[in-house]
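Progress against Task 2.4 (sequence-to-structure conversion) is shown through the following example record, which the project officer requested during the mid-term review.
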Amino acid sequence: MKEIKINTEFIKLDQLMKFANLVQSGGEAKGLIAQELVLVNGEICTQRGKKIRPGDQVEFDGEVVCVK
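Structure tokens generated for the chain above:
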């Protein structure tokens, strides 16, 4: 599990995926989210702009990112 610290109230899902190096670009994140390949707190998420807050977990391709 990788921990990512943010200094704001939230980060959007596609931005987090790029920030955590899960994807190379926002466009790649958008496509993967649309294909229902990304889990937020254990549930499939299709909203690329979903607000991810501290305590949330994002999972993609076997990697888990926990936001602190």
